[in-house]
Amino acid sequence: MAGAIRMAPWRRVFVYGTLKKGEPNHHWLTRSENGQARFLGKGTTVVKFPLVVGTRYNIPFLLARPGQGEHIHGEVYEVDEAMFGKLDELEDYPDYYDREEQPILTEQNETIQCWLYLIRSFPDKLLAKKMLTAYHNTPEQPYNEKSVRTVPARDDLTY
Fold it and tell me: Is 78 a catalytic residue?
Protein backbone atom coordinates (compact mmCIF):
# COMPACT_ATOMS: atom_id res chain seq x y z
CA MET A 1 0.00 0.00 0.00
CA ALA A 2 1.70 3.19 -1.18
CA GLY A 3 2.29 5.83 1.48
CA ALA A 4 1.51 3.52 4.39
CA ILE A 5 3.52 4.07 7.51
CA ARG A 6 5.48 0.98 8.44
CA MET A 7 5.62 0.56 12.18
CA ALA A 8 8.82 -0.79 13.70
CA PRO A 9 8.31 -4.23 15.23
CA TRP A 10 7.75 -4.63 18.94
CA ARG A 11 9.97 -7.19 20.61
CA ARG A 12 9.31 -9.35 23.63
CA VAL A 13 11.93 -9.16 26.34
CA PHE A 14 12.22 -11.38 29.42
CA VAL A 15 13.66 -9.56 32.44
CA TYR A 16 14.83 -11.46 35.51
CA GLY A 17 16.84 -8.97 37.56
CA THR A 18 17.02 -5.26 38.26
CA LEU A 19 14.55 -4.38 35.49
CA LYS A 20 11.60 -6.15 37.16
CA LYS A 21 8.85 -4.18 38.91
CA GLY A 22 10.06 -3.00 42.32
CA GLU A 23 13.73 -3.43 41.44
CA PRO A 24 16.39 -0.68 41.07
CA ASN A 25 16.43 -0.38 37.25
CA HIS A 26 12.71 -0.77 36.55
CA HIS A 27 12.58 2.98 35.82
CA TRP A 28 14.36 2.25 32.52
CA LEU A 29 11.16 0.54 31.33
CA THR A 30 8.83 3.30 32.53
CA ARG A 31 10.60 6.43 31.26
CA SER A 32 8.81 7.61 28.12
CA GLU A 33 12.01 9.22 26.82
CA ASN A 34 13.48 5.69 26.58
CA GLY A 35 10.67 4.46 24.32
CA GLN A 36 7.66 2.33 25.04
CA ALA A 37 7.27 -0.85 27.07
CA ARG A 38 4.16 -2.87 27.86
CA PHE A 39 4.05 -5.39 30.69
CA LEU A 40 2.66 -8.67 29.35
CA GLY A 41 2.91 -10.77 32.51
CA LYS A 42 5.14 -13.06 34.47
CA GLY A 43 7.08 -15.87 32.90
CA THR A 44 9.62 -18.62 33.50
CA THR A 45 12.45 -19.85 31.32
CA VAL A 46 11.72 -23.19 29.66
CA VAL A 47 15.45 -23.93 29.73
CA LYS A 48 17.34 -23.95 33.03
CA PHE A 49 20.08 -21.35 33.50
CA PRO A 50 22.42 -20.41 36.34
CA LEU A 51 21.25 -17.11 37.87
CA VAL A 52 23.75 -15.78 40.39
CA VAL A 53 24.56 -12.50 42.11
CA GLY A 54 28.12 -11.44 41.36
CA THR A 55 30.71 -8.69 41.70
CA ARG A 56 31.08 -6.32 44.65
CA TYR A 57 28.07 -4.47 43.16
CA ASN A 58 25.65 -7.40 43.62
CA ILE A 59 24.59 -7.65 40.00
CA PRO A 60 22.31 -10.50 38.91
CA PHE A 61 23.89 -12.51 36.11
CA LEU A 62 22.20 -15.07 33.93
CA LEU A 63 25.11 -17.25 32.85
CA ALA A 64 25.21 -18.76 29.36
CA ARG A 65 25.19 -22.37 30.53
CA PRO A 66 21.79 -23.63 29.33
CA GLY A 67 20.68 -26.80 31.08
CA GLN A 68 22.46 -25.91 34.35
CA GLY A 69 20.89 -24.10 37.27
CA GLU A 70 17.17 -23.44 37.62
CA HIS A 71 14.12 -22.35 35.66
CA ILE A 72 14.24 -18.57 36.10
CA HIS A 73 11.20 -16.51 37.10
CA GLY A 74 10.83 -13.05 35.65
CA GLU A 75 8.62 -10.68 33.70
CA VAL A 76 7.79 -10.33 30.02
CA TYR A 77 7.59 -6.95 28.32
CA GLU A 78 6.88 -5.90 24.79
CA VAL A 79 9.18 -3.02 23.83
CA ASP A 80 9.54 -0.76 20.82
CA GLU A 81 12.79 -0.26 18.91
CA ALA A 82 13.81 2.79 20.98
CA MET A 83 13.35 0.95 24.29
CA PHE A 84 15.18 -2.11 22.94
CA GLY A 85 18.12 0.18 22.15
CA LYS A 86 18.01 1.67 25.67
CA LEU A 87 18.04 -1.83 27.19
CA ASP A 88 21.07 -2.65 25.04
CA GLU A 89 22.70 0.50 26.44
CA LEU A 90 21.92 -0.44 30.05
CA GLU A 91 23.22 -3.98 29.57
CA ASP A 92 26.28 -2.74 27.64
CA TYR A 93 25.36 -5.05 24.76
CA PRO A 94 27.31 -6.54 23.02
CA ASP A 95 30.47 -5.73 24.98
CA TYR A 96 29.36 -7.04 28.39
CA TYR A 97 26.04 -8.82 28.18
CA ASP A 98 24.92 -10.68 25.11
CA ARG A 99 21.32 -11.39 24.21
CA GLU A 100 19.47 -14.24 22.58
CA GLU A 101 15.94 -15.46 22.09
CA GLN A 102 14.72 -18.15 24.44
CA PRO A 103 11.35 -19.86 25.00
CA ILE A 104 9.47 -18.46 28.00
CA LEU A 105 6.47 -20.11 29.64
CA THR A 106 3.84 -17.49 30.50
CA GLU A 107 1.30 -17.49 33.33
CA GLN A 108 -1.28 -18.52 30.72
CA ASN A 109 0.75 -21.68 30.05
CA GLU A 110 1.74 -20.41 26.60
CA THR A 111 5.32 -20.67 25.34
CA ILE A 112 6.60 -17.54 23.59
CA GLN A 113 9.98 -16.46 22.26
CA CYS A 114 11.59 -13.58 24.16
CA TRP A 115 14.92 -11.84 24.13
CA LEU A 116 16.96 -12.12 27.31
CA TYR A 117 20.35 -10.79 28.34
CA LEU A 118 23.07 -13.14 29.56
CA ILE A 119 26.80 -13.30 30.24
CA ARG A 120 28.79 -15.56 27.91
CA SER A 121 32.30 -14.93 29.19
CA PHE A 122 32.71 -15.36 32.94
CA PRO A 123 35.04 -17.04 35.44
CA ASP A 124 33.99 -20.59 36.34
CA LYS A 125 33.90 -19.65 40.03
CA LEU A 126 30.58 -17.86 39.37
CA LEU A 127 29.07 -21.33 38.84
CA ALA A 128 29.93 -22.15 42.47
CA LYS A 129 27.72 -19.33 43.76
CA LYS A 130 24.20 -19.93 45.03
CA MET A 131 21.93 -20.39 42.03
CA LEU A 132 18.64 -18.54 42.24
CA THR A 133 15.21 -19.07 40.70
CA ALA A 134 14.43 -15.34 41.03
CA TYR A 135 16.34 -12.16 41.85
CA HIS A 136 15.31 -9.63 44.48
CA ASN A 137 17.39 -6.68 45.64
CA THR A 138 17.95 -6.91 49.40
CA PRO A 139 19.50 -4.72 52.12
CA GLU A 140 21.93 -7.58 52.86
CA GLN A 141 23.10 -7.68 49.22
CA PRO A 142 22.20 -4.27 47.77
CA TYR A 143 22.56 -3.63 44.06
CA ASN A 144 24.86 -0.71 43.21
CA GLU A 145 23.96 1.61 40.33
CA LYS A 146 26.60 2.34 37.67
CA SER A 147 26.94 5.89 39.00
CA VAL A 148 28.44 4.69 42.33
CA ARG A 149 30.77 2.00 40.98
CA THR A 150 34.50 2.60 41.23
CA VAL A 151 35.41 -0.29 38.91
CA PRO A 152 33.47 -1.21 35.75
CA ALA A 153 31.37 -4.31 36.51
CA ARG A 154 32.83 -6.19 33.54
CA ASP A 155 36.28 -5.80 35.14
CA ASP A 156 34.92 -7.02 38.48
CA LEU A 157 33.66 -10.49 37.51
CA THR A 158 36.53 -12.15 39.35
CA TYR A 159 35.75 -10.32 42.60
Answer: no
